[in-house]
Amino acid sequence: MSYKRANKIFDASIILITVLAVLLCIIPVLNVIAVSLSSNSAILNGEVFLLPKEFTLEAYGAIFKDGSMLWSLGYTVILTAGYTFLAMVLTIFAAYALTKKRLKGRNIFLLLIVFTMYFSGGIIPDYLLIKNLNFLDRVWSLVLPGAVSAFNLIVLKSFFQTMPESLEESAILDGCTDVGVLFRIVLPLSKAALATISLYYAVGKWNSFQDALFYISNQKLYPLQLKLYQIVKNSQALDVSMGDANSSSILPESLKNACVVFATIPIVLVYPKLQKYFVSGVTIGAVKG
Predict the structure, then answer these.
(1) What's the CA gap between 135 and 128, in Å, rounded?
(2) Based on the domain organization, do 73 and 26 belong to the same domain?
(3) Cβ(258)–Cβ(36) under 8 Å?
(4) Is 51 within the bounds of a domain?
(5) Which of 7, 73, 150, 195 could bond to 277 as cystine, CB 3.0-4.6 Å?
(6) Residue at 50 is within a domain
(7) Under 8 Å between Cβ of 226 and 209
(8) What are the tens digits of pLDDT across the range 250-272?
(9) Which SS3 state, helix, strand or coil, does residue 177 take?
(10) 254: closest CA among 70, 26, 51, 62?
(11) Which domain holds residue 64?
(12) CB distance 72 to 224 below 8 Å
């Protein structure tokens, strides 16, 4: 077999594998959307696969009629934005400080940070800590415990270390302090890394529900994913999960899939705007450890 023909076979195999992988990712999503837009009879008869049958928006109408779902959406958007901002501020300052060799105890701090990536106190000690801090049923229980990710901090620190030291030295000679160097030199050159880390934090918080499940009992403080979790779990008891009598004529399967789409749309709208920074931010930050 010639070298040229072998390359063609290899390229065709890669394309085939990629197409199969894409289909495996897209088909479940299309099925969820199709079920959420199909009539009860089509769903019961098993006629829905990739395209809606007997198109209807009743499931989405029930969601928008339920005030608690809309409240959870707005609340989760604000929670995610606030959490991401706080997490980025803490991560930026910690990562930049750890790049300085003159920082006393730097290696000890790094060791303690890495240690938390492998070991934790566990769920019960975490709950007792939140309880003793009087954070139960408060927004702080959803923000502070995960405000700094050790992985994200190390990635950002590695990115900062790839920058030429001559840039900072020139700025210091011009009279800049460390804070001035950070805001005037380092951060403007780190847009790719900052966008990537922000996306990590935002997606992680948007998708999380376990912390709210443990620490929050006030329904007004339920994030959207916890509401979705309850609907999926109690899909056979809609009056409990939705509290809307008008939704009783809608199949649980249709309503459940509509809620999945409803909870996914906001992050899907944000992700493409940051995607161009994603690959460059991760790869550049991984060059130097």
Answers:
(1) 10
(2) no
(3) yes
(4) no
(5) 195
(6) no
(7) yes
(8) 677 787 888 888 888 887 887 77
(9) coil
(10) 62
(11) 58-285
(12) yes
